[in-house]
């Protein structure tokens, strides 16, 4: 049995979400958010080099100059699928595995706000999913696509690096493309995607102005686009999108975005009382108020619009955390630790609401 198979098999049996391998140390597993020793023997540098060669895809193995950082997916027969990151530490490979469960969880099973289902079933627009690394974006994105697949007859094309969840056609016809295996680059795949008759396009990550330009063009022509972005709040997402473009183009991009954004979802994982983690989701929907603020470049007021937009299905992180604490899903301590403004959340828990959002919008 290979080293990788032995470790990954035990990781799945232990219900680990992540596996970490480094030289001169035993494998470590992350189980329900806690990093634990696996009980397996220490690994040498040679063990890690052999492991990389065993699992590295051909398109990366055959490169004349090997990359010092690599992302790819690995399927271990009879064990499962993993997202893998390989990087160098003191000239020796270090590996991080993320276990990708075969079954795609539904929006309801993830305890996500029910409005996400109606957003996923929109005919067109851009839905941006934001959050830090390891905040569960890939799982939520898969749940949104699963919702489309269950309820709508349409053609879905994904461009991913690496491929994570594997979809089976239900109501929809799904084509999944992995960078490096099915297409040489994101740029190449996105250049041609609109010629492939998609109804829904999933772009694994917004990386540059080309990704955004394709997304905006697709949304303008009646397609639904889902993607991810690395920012910490929904309101910051608009700033981040504009930062991809030179100053001379930002006004036009901002106006196009105002007309074609569907929603921005931003999430953080909070330790749950019953074990594991739950996603607290901030939701910004492109209501007439949000659209007007974006088009008029009043981006600093977007947070206030989210705070006062609860009737439209919007919520801030604190509003999400308040619900989770009051319903007993998470403890007050963990909710406060994950809050972007814990003092305000403390006041909310005591029944004190300053209604700053309405004051800001009114001013």
Features:
2 domains, 363 residues, globular, alpha/beta, six-stranded antiparallel sheet, Beta-Lactamase, seven-stranded mixed sheet, Rossmann fold, 37% helix
How do the helices and strands line up, and which of them pair or pack?
Elements: H1 3-13, E1 18-21, E2 28-31, E3 34-37, H2 45-55, H3 58-61, E4 69-76, E5 80-89, E6 92-100, H4 115-120, E7 125-130, H5 137-151, E8 155-160, E9 173-178, H6 186-192, E10 200-203, H7 209-220, E11 224-229, H8 234-243, H9 247-260, E12 261-271, E13 277-285, H10 288-295, H11 302-307, H12 317-326, H13 332-338, H14 342-349, H15 356-362
Parallel strand pairs: 7-11, 7-12, 8-9, 8-10, 10-11
Antiparallel strand pairs: 1-2, 1-6, 2-3, 4-5, 5-6, 12-13
Helix pairs in contact: 9-10, 12-13, 12-14, 13-14
Quick summary:
This protein is an alpha/beta fold and 363 residues long. It has helices spanning 3-13, 45-55, 58-61, 115-120, 137-151, 186-192, 209-220, 234-243, 247-260, 288-295, 302-307, 317-326, 332-338, 342-349, 356-362, and strands at residues 18-21, 28-31, 34-37, 69-76, 80-89, 92-100, 125-130, 155-160, 173-178, 200-203, 224-229, 261-271, 277-285.
Explain this structure to me?
The protein contains 15 helices and 13 strands. It is of the alpha/beta class and 363 residues long. It has two domains: 3-100, Beta-Lactamase; 115-362, 3-Layer(aba) Sandwich (Rossmann fold).
According to CATH, what is the topology of the largest domain? Rossmann fold
Helical residues, percent: 25-40%
Kindly report the oligomeric state of this protein: single chain
Order of helices and strands: HEEEHHEEEHEHEEHEHEHHEEHHHHHH
Shape: globular
Number of strands: 13
> What is the class of the largest domain in the CATH system?
Alpha Beta
Our measurement of the CA-to-CA distance between the termini, rounded to an integer number of angstroms, reads 67 Å
Overall structural class, as computed from helix and strand content, comes to alpha/beta
- Strand order of the main beta sheet, please? 9-8-10-11-7-12-13
CATH superfamily of the largest domain: P-loop containing nucleotide triphosphate hydrolases
Radius of gyration (Å): 22 Å
Assign the CATH architecture of the largest domain. 3-Layer(aba) Sandwich
* Number of self-contained structural domains: 2
The poorly predicted ranges are none
